């Protein structure tokens, strides 16, 4: 089956495709807020109906939370499984939106047309690029180039509580030759990227207790131990002078970057000044001797996400507090073992406690880093297909964030996952005035048409 | 005029005196929070009216902040000026109070009756011991044994911004033969104390700014500088391993304890285990090689009174924050210069900032330590009067807290100050469930009746 007429069909049908996306964006499917439960159902129903209209066997599947949508259609090539999510982030603060978040519209901007509204980029717009590519194949040739399944969840923005149980229960049905995920971005807005490295996340909260109650710093100061001082000393000791994390064994299982990937990343000419300049910074502040992209994508980190203790209001209060708390997260890569690191971190903290202080910990989740199997033939096939569509050659990139679904496909279904996305750094996902570039939507759809073609040819 | 009938009158009138104190305690005169401005006015009005009812010429005097109360009444003896403060500390965390902080009540406890509520000990209860002593003298004899003035401020818990200007402007009116201050404690709950050494207080707030806005720790973590880490490093470096403060020049002007005072303090047999045990601690945590009473009374300190930054709510948020803030105080002694130390501290912080971080400071007041003039004859007169009232002989003691007013009386008005108070270590001032022992209130009132008698006799 020829690719060119499919691409031409996508060009010709951009207006109705955009209308369909706007229709989906009008459904306020906020998963984290129970008030929007019926809207999540409505978004799932909309997708089932749309997929059936292009010949998929599609079903809404109940879970203890919001429903999944699962769809299948036959085709000659390998079996691909596409994952996306139809739920969206909350919209507050509402007053910072220029237009109502669920009254999406196409807007002209100096940088080109954009589709503006909650979910435009994360993830409804990205999800529909794949659906529209399938529609164009079907419309032009009456059939699809591969056997295609789709799997959409409605809880991605609220911690995906039903995802792993559902994948376990439906493992046979969801297993495929390759999983495709469209929830990431391009590199620098011009270079299509296939994410091959995702950092994991380990969340810890620790509370140091010194005196059994808040004290007056005049009456007790100098004699009683201050837990803020203890906490500060622990945090200060988590990095050495070169920016390395000091938790014993932390770097066990951290791989060095393969030369091939290093060359590719060097070739990306990452504009670190621009990236940092946008947030008021000028210098990379990570590990000495590492490039900025390594710091972001392939090196593990330790960050303090929050700290509190004592009097935090206006003015001054001479309290010597009983407790001080910090939330600390570690981004993990390669074969780092989150559970071993949690244990080592806790032991290190215990060993730094002075007499009369105690510590309690709270576990805020643990997932390891993941490394995609670029040796799978689909990766090079997809990379060539993307390079045909865009002005720059596609690159294997990393992603500093954590997208656990990729690991679940591998661990639960033994299915390699490939993350391809068309988002841009300025899409303002999770923030007011979220948008998705019309170019991302249009060329994203064309990209998937090309990738399906390439996968079908092998 | 005979003392005994005055003491008997105090015993007889304890119930109505307690009722008056409870009335004053019901006024939530929190000076640091602008929301309570009208309540501070109300507390001042209440005092003016009460003092007028016992024959004082009393007035509320406006300041740029909360008003002062000034009152005068004639008498034959020397001119004594009594200082107290009607403002109280904030009450958070509110959920740790067993009763609402401004619904005070008299409670029976295993250790005796207590008056429970915010301000019961600091300072409304202590202040009213003096007022009630005057009331008893007046009720019994129709006149006072000395010429008595009173001077109450409403900003003691928020750095006393109006105090020095007011004292300068009204120096003639406020000068006296001796100033009496009731805002300190007994030693060990049995030994009445005259405080002859007070630490000063230097308050600083610093805010470290890294990125210009809060960032996603996955997208930026490892590359962008985290201001909480910077702040932790600064705090951790403020003490060396022996517990000494590392701010350059900090110990300039810190005197060694005179042998005479050291002997008196050694004689007090300070129960450090009991003192620390009451607050869940077991070991002195101050400078190595110093006795516990030195740590509390005669050595300077540095404490962190509050810290905050990033996400502090329930659960977890992977934010890399833009800002982190700490409130830090120094207790000063001897000839330490608060302004020089502030400058040195700020310079030290600046020197520790990594590139891309900036710091802003807020000044929360500065006062040096002070040393009372025990050669003034009033000291020995008062010491004998106190020893008559209590089971143990009164002692000259130190006080870890900062009561700058004592220094102001000397420096601005050339009036020596004498600090006598009836607080106990377990009064929980500045904390939830503050209380004042009924015995302190009762015998404190009797003590002042005795002191006034002793001063009038010379």
From TrEMBL, chains A, B:
One of its GO terms (molecular function) is metal ion binding. It holds the Pfam family Peptidase_M20. It comes from Brevirhabdus pacifica. It comes from the Bacteria. Keywords: Hydrolase, Metal-binding, Protease. One of its GO terms (biological process) is proteolysis. The keyword Metal-binding applies. This is Uncharacterized protein. The lineage of its organism: Bacteria, Pseudomonadati, Pseudomonadota, Alphaproteobacteria, Rhodobacterales.
